[in-house]
Amino acid sequence: MDAQVLGKTNYLSMAAVIAAASIFGLTYSLTAPLIAVQLSQKGYGEFYIGLNAAMHAVGVLFIAPVLPSLAVRFGARSLIVAALLTTAALLAMFPLVPVVWLWFPLRLGFGMGAEVLFVMSETWTNELSNDRVRGRTMALYTASLSLGMVGGPALLSVLGAGPLAYWVGAAIAAVAVLLVAGPWVMEPRRIETPSHNPIKYLRLAPIAVATTVLNAAIETAGLSFIALYATGMGWSEQGAMRLISTLMLGAILLQLPIGWLADRMNPRRLALLLAALSAVSALLWPWMLGQHWLAYTMIFVWGGLFVGIYTVMLTMVGSHYSGSDLVGIYAVMGLAWGGGALLGPSLAGFAMTVNPYHGLPGFVAAACALFAGYMLFSRSKT
User: Fold this and answer.
1) Is the dihedral of CA 259, 265, 268, 270 positive or negative?
2) Are 254 and 303 in contact (CB under 8 A)?
3) Are residues 172 and 204 in the same domain?
4) Which of 120, 132, 123, 129 has the alpha carbon at shortest distance from 14?
5) Are 22 and 114 within 8 A, CB to CB?
6) Are residues 51 and 23 in the same domain?
7) Does some domain include residue 19?
8) Are 226 and 372 contained in the same domain?
9) Domain that holds residue 276
10) Which of 47, 98, 320, 359 could form an S-S bond across to 351 if both were Cys, CB 3.0 to 4.6 Å?
11) Can you tell me the distance from the alpha carbon of 209 to that of 257, in angstroms, rounded to the nearest whole number?
């Protein structure tokens, strides 16, 4: 195969894997509110709904430690196809299972499938890239994940919280199999026998793990409380929703220029700069939301800066590690995401209870500043 054909095949493969990865964001953002609404309609309270939601994290915890071994045995393509088919089957089953307690193992299986799709798509995308364009490649990957996160609620707004939403989500996951199963898609090379000790991967990439905790904590806290914070500042509910949409739009569109910068300057310095800017600009939120004409622009930029930290970290990890180490690091990052997602809303809620005006921006600024300080003094490469 000549270089031109090989390059074209590589780009087609990369596009297929990144598109399939966006299904992770879409199915997660679709099912989380959909299942919560349906359980509430059936008369279950917040505690029961929270327990059911926690099963997703349990599924992640269950599969993550053995994922490197599974990657060695079956390869990335087989695992992603299995994850997409599992996701499609489980989504289709939810409306057909009348016994609600059976939704707990369904949610656990869904969490396992999502973790496989998340980790293996990141690994595959990195393997298809190279150091010359890795920043832009991972920026496109992160933007696609964010776009998928926007797609779930958008589908719900059209389809409603009924069985059709599950079945459309299942159909999308099933069709995505065709993207990665085609013969034109290049499969990454099989990896060597991995370590079974997650502590090894934590020691290899502590900054990457810290980045994931930060990203998950702020993302989940923001989605939970930004609208509430904005309405408390005098915004209408519609205006608050538009703020969230604007933030997500910044998280998508600004990743490409950030990825371009990551390919042209020291990625570690760029990540540190983005974290510092995110911390300082978060402190401006109380003033910013009082200036409606400026709020949309600033929240758009802030969303891009903050999500850019994760984009740059994916670039750093991919440039230093490959094979089983890369899979192991991403698996531990998946565990860290679950921990951050549990921690973020709790701390943000407490901060807003202490000070409704400065609590949320203070929490966000403090988290970003602590991360920047850790990066500044850490000796780890990643």
Assistant:
1) negative
2) yes
3) no
4) 129
5) no
6) yes
7) yes
8) yes
9) 198-377
10) 359
11) 24
Q: Is residue 325 part of a domain?
A: yes
The answer to whether residue 271 scores a pLDDT higher than 90 is yes
Instruction: Specify the number of domains making up the chain.
Output: 2
Distance CA 80, CA 343 (A): 29
Same domain? For 78 and 221 the reply is no
What b-and-e string marks burial along 220-256, b requiring 16 or more CB atoms within 10 Å of the CB? bbbbebbbebbeebebeeebbbbbbbbbbbbbbebbb
Tens digits of residue pLDDT in 205-263: 899 899 999 988 888 777 667 777 888 888 887 787 778 778 888 888 899 899 999 88
One DSSP character per residue, 301-356 reads: HHHHHHHHHHHHHHHHHHHH--HHHHHHHHHHHHHHHHHHHHHHHHHHHHHHHH-T
**How far is it, in rounded angstroms, from Cα 198 to Cα 202?**
6
Tokens 């190279």 found at:
130
Paired tokens of 255: 């990743």
Last residue of a domain, one of 132, 147, 181: 181
> In whole angstroms, what separates CA 346 from the centre of its chain?
19
Same domain, yes or no: 152 and 265: no
pTM for the predicted model, two decimal places: 0.79
Q: Domain check: are 176 and 202 in the same one?
A: no
